[in-house]
Amino acid sequence: MAIRPNHSAYALVLSYCLLIPRIAMQGQVQPEVAPPAKSDTFATTADGKKERIQHRELASANFRISGADLSGEDVLSQAARIFGNSPIKSSGDAATASSEACYQSATEGDSTHLIFGRGEVDFWFTLSSGVSEGKGNLVCTKSGKITRNITTDSGLHLGLTKQQVIAVLGLATNRSQNVRQHTEVLIYSLETEEKTDPQKFEQWWEKEIKENPRPNRQTFLENYANYTLEVYITAQFANDSLSQLNISWSGQY
Fold this sequence. Notes:
- This protein has 253 residues and is α+β, with helices and mostly antiparallel strands.
- The chain has 5 helices and 13 strands.
- The longest helix is centred in the first third of the chain and has 21 residues.
């Protein structure tokens, strides 16, 4: 006598098999840090630790926020034109010298702050929900242009999840976590070789001609046609919600 297949049992097994990959996908941990690459290099920090550096491009839209551009002219001057004058706090000297201006939301109950900074060769901004740690002595000017929804041209803003930030910036160079405080920081340390803007280069060359009676264009090209772009970003999250974003841009010849 032929044995008839049990279609109900077969369907049950098939459904179970199809369900396993779906459960696995839902529970899969998404990567946050980029795996090691042959192009990676390492730098030694002031305290003797090795710091990994990724060599990859990052869209210039990440350096622009509300009309201020870290890769443009002095960012403090830009901020004053856009948000109004704010007291500038300077500290350090020579290579460690820095100046910062702070702005905060004028809306009651909105703790959004935006700080712009300038160093010897770098510019930065810090967007945070509240004054950043160590910045409590800054005098912040209220501005109606500072709101919870303020966004970089690339779409970064407070409240994003880690995966949403990674979708914009790519996988991080490193990360740190404080389990007790439910906070996590994604760290981006990037470096690339970039070409100097042609218009800016010609402006510099004309200045060189005026200041130097016998300028050598070939030597000038070798020194200023390209520069090393160093980008350092920290994105801090509280319960998987972006609470502070710091982006630093440094062009060195």
